[in-house]
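To whoever is on call:

I kicked off a structure prediction for a single chain this morning and the downstream step that reads the tokens threw a length-mismatch warning. I double-checked the sequence; it's 141 residues and nothing unusual in it as far as I can see. Pasting both halves so you can look.
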Amino acid sequence: MDKKGAGLLSEQQLLEAPEEDYMNSEQLAFFKHLLQQLHQSTGLRIQQAKTQMSAPINSSDPNDRATNEEQSSIALRIVEREQKLLPKIQQALERIRLGSYGYCLESEEPIGIRRLLARPTAEFCAEVKELKEKKEHHYRS
């Protein structure tokens, strides 16, 4: 862990913490740091993908050109996906600031440490998210 992360709880400590410690100041500091790192690494991946897309190809070989176009297409999809993640990270950081991070936006129940470790930008507990996905699937069918 870097110097900024020194003194933070470990994932193992988070998982072993009693339920009454849920979203205490130490846990919020852990997730704030995690989200800040995620924001920074996401921005870096976006920049790398943009650089890759803008690099000119100096080949007249059609196969090389086709390969480059495919790589650019993949890089563009990465940029699009990652750019959607940045506002979600900002919203999660704002929920930490407001004191609502870690709680379902709909039911106000705890989202859970395991779910937040897997998806730090989670807004809904697993039960509410599952219902939302079932509704989405139902309306798409």
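Update from on-call: the warning came from a stale cache, not from the record. Cleared it. Sanity check on the structure: Residues 31 and 120 are 7 Å apart (CA to CA).
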